[in-house]
């Protein structure tokens, strides 16, 4: 697994935990930063995970608006927390990170959805992110 793939999983963990626990993202990010400092062998994945979470924090309103617009008949609150987190990660990469090709951002989010969410989540995440990509 590449460092960026590991970073996306770490970002997923942070976003998911904050959502489920009702914590603010900056608080969860600070907790993870402290833990990451004690794990120098995981530094490469931590840096990009932090970029993702910081990007979601900085652009959350616009990201959530895109997700809501293109998730036909699904409100953010109705989505599984894992899907919500993955859509935020994928949308951030598509809309705000020019270093990641759109197809890679979508594929990575879909693979994580297949691994960690419902049977239908992979196709749901793919559809929403593909619509966001087409509109940008």
Percentage of residues in DSSP E strands:
under 5%
Cα-to-Cα separation, first versus last residue: 29 Å
Tell me the major beta sheet. Answer: none
Helix-strand makeup class: mainly alpha
Report the oligomer: single chain
Tell me the name of the CATH homologous superfamily.
Answer: NusB-like
- Gyration radius (Cα, Å) is 14 Å
Number of helices: 6
Shape: globular
CATH level-3 fold name: N-utilizing Substance Protein B Homolog, Chain A
SS elements, strand count: 0
The CATH class, by name, is Mainly Alpha
Assign the CATH architecture. Answer: Orthogonal Bundle
> Averaged pLDDT, please?
94
SSE pattern: HHHHHH
The figure for the number of domains is 1
What features would you describe in this structure?
Helices cover 78% and strands 0% of the residues. It has one domain (3-135): N-utilizing Substance Protein B Homolog, Chain A. It has 6 helices and no strands. The N and C termini lie far apart (29 Å). It has helices spanning 3-21, 25-37, 43-70, 81-96, 102-116, 121-135. By secondary structure, the chain is an all-alpha fold.
């Amino acid at each position: 697994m590449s460092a960026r793939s590991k970073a996306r999983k770490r970002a997923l963990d942070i976003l998911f935990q904050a959502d489920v626990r009702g914590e603010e993202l900056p608080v969860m990010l600070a907790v993870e930063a402290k833990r990451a400092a004690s794990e120098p062998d995981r530094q490469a994945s931590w840096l990009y995970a932090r970029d993702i979470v910081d990007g979601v924090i900085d652009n959350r309103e616009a990201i959530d608006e895109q997700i809501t617009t293109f998730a036909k008949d699904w409100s953010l609150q109705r989505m599984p927390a894992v899907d919500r987190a993955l859509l935020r990660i994928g949308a951030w990469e598509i809309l705000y990170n020019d270093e990641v090709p759109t197809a890679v951002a979508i594929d990575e989010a879909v693979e994580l959805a297949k691994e960690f969410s419902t049977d239908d989540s992979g196709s749901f995440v793919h559809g929403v992110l593909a619509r966001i990509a087409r509109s940008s």
